[in-house]
Amino acid sequence: MFVCRVGHTFSIGDLLVGKEEQIETRLWSAVVALEELVEVLADFEQRARRQGLVGAARALQERARRTEAQIATLRSAIADNRAVEVDDEVSRIRATAEP
User: Fold this and answer.
1) CA within 20 to 30 Å of 38's CA: 21, 32, 68, 99, which one?
2) Is residue 55 part of a domain?
3) Which residues of 2-23 are buried (b: 16+ CB within 10 A; e: fewer)?
């Protein structure tokens, strides 16, 4: 059994599953936030173009392009993420005071 910072106990399988789920949730939150940023940048880019602010429009478009690349990287990381299989040998790992 493993004990968290506040005293909850977990089996190795439960601990790993919980951490994997937490990571996936946070990665998806980052994807959503970045997608929202792309929408805002696109809106501001269009406003800048309508106002003849070509330099600002280009800068906003470039930031949106970089953000889209970041989204693709995160989506790839999510897709490639594979949890460790908790077999009998892994489940025999014991918590100790040593690293």
Assistant:
1) 21
2) yes
3) eeeeeeeebebeebbeeeeeee
From residue 67, how far is each of 35, 42, 59, 72 by CA, in Å? Answer: 8, 11, 12, 9
pLDDT in tens, the chain (99 residues): 778 788 888 888 888 888 889 999 999 999 999 999 999 999 999 999 999 999 999 999 999 999 999 999 999 999 988 777 777 677 677 655 555
Number of domains in the chain: 1
Asked if the structure places residue 31 within a domain, the reply is: yes
Within-domain flag for 94: no
For 22, the domain range is: 9-85
Please give the model's pTM, rounded to 2 decimal places. Answer: 0.78
Check residue 3 and report its DSSP letter: E
